[in-house]
Amino acid sequence: MKDDLTAIILAAGKGTRMKSKRAKVLHRVNGWPILRYVLRATTELALSEFLVVVGDGAQAVRKEFSEWPVEFIEQREQLGTGHAVSQAYGHVSGDFLLIVPGDLPLLTSQVLSRLISHHNEQGADLAVLSMVPAIPAAYGRLKRDASGHPVKIVEERDATDEELDIVEVNSGIYCVRNDEFLWLALRSLDAGNAQGEYYLTDLVEHYHCAGKHVTAIKATDPQQVMGVNSRSELAVADRSMRLRKARELMAGGVTIVDPESTYIELDVVIGSDTVILPGTHLSGGTTVGSNCRLGPETWIDASKVEDDVGIRYSVIESARVRTGTTIGPYSHLRRGADVGPVARIGNFVEVKAARLRRGVKAGHLTYLGDSDVGENVNIGAGTITCNYDGKAKHRTVIKDGAFIGSNTSIVAPVTIGERAIIGAGSTITEDVPSGALALGRARQVNKHKKEEVE
Ligand code: UD1
Ligand code: CA
Asked: For this structure, is 364 an active site residue?
């Protein structure tokens, strides 16, 4: 049945309760925009078509998700969830519609599959996914008749005291037959309610009264269909998502000392026996090998960290850290840094677009940019590659076994040969042959009082 299902994701709403200039679905939960989780869960199902209704902040939403295999439909005025779905008229090719709100960051594809199977088994015209959360909050209440058939959804603001006592609420996810009846029903919605909007939820009563087959199935885990309407709910979702990811990693053999203060995005992969200390942020599809020790207070984005690596108090961006390397405290590996194996990058060292090979040591106060540093090179404290002449970047090559004395400026483009030694305090502007000692500094003069008088 999945091949004749079209998913419609509703992401046009103003998100008034967020009190934000940004579209609600672009607010971030554990690093990702809310809508990314919804698209991920929905597109994991092999459905025939994915439509996303956008409106508030449409341009930014389209831009953020331009790579996704979805079609965007514009809802120019945000007149309610029913109005949002009606914008898809003429765009739907599937026999059935799966309607999903764009503000459910904890959604999983399993939840959606369950509703689809239920809808299928029941041969229903309209199936609603309901839930029984700990607190019904502002969710629409699902009313059933004496025999348990859904008859109506009442929004909290329109509900009577009696209706507010209903514990089963609407998740906002539905499966419905794509037929003439649906589009006519959507067109006939009226906005005579507390919010003056065309409510999609009114379909339930409409279908029920017309004698259509309406069913509802409860989500087993209400958390997975939690909606985010406010900043407080955003924080709740963020925490849940982080803990969910942490639990998954711990089950795979990763030690997370304090999951509450660890921030790991959903697509990060970590090998077993790695220990993550508090204040660690891992994002952008970073992969980490096994037996590493990361943190405390470390940011790693879009990077590859191999096995047996230790990184403390450092920032790593779009870099590769090879096996057995230690980094930090207070190191910054930037785009294109590729370090190790068994290298040592220490205090206040910045590395950019540089390959530092096996056994390189750069322990203190150093900048290595646009460089290729050979095996077992020792970089003394305060070494700077002067890679930029004000117009262009130039490369520094330091060959295997070279020794760079402290406080050396290496003015690129330049090559330092194998096992060459650079005297401390040098400014190197010319190539240094293999094995040579290069001194590029003023000779020390000791002046005695007597000489000064002469
Ligand atoms: C909606 C349901 C409520 C349900 C809850 C579940 C209605 C009337 N109410 O309430 O029964 O319990 O979801 O989370 O449907 N949107 C548009 N265009 C619009 C309005 C909304 O695309 O004109 C989108 C929003 O971006 C959002 C989704 O539809 O992603 C739901 O809208 P929202 O305003 O959050 O509805 P709720 O009040 O949460
Ligand atoms: Ca909502």
From this structure: yes
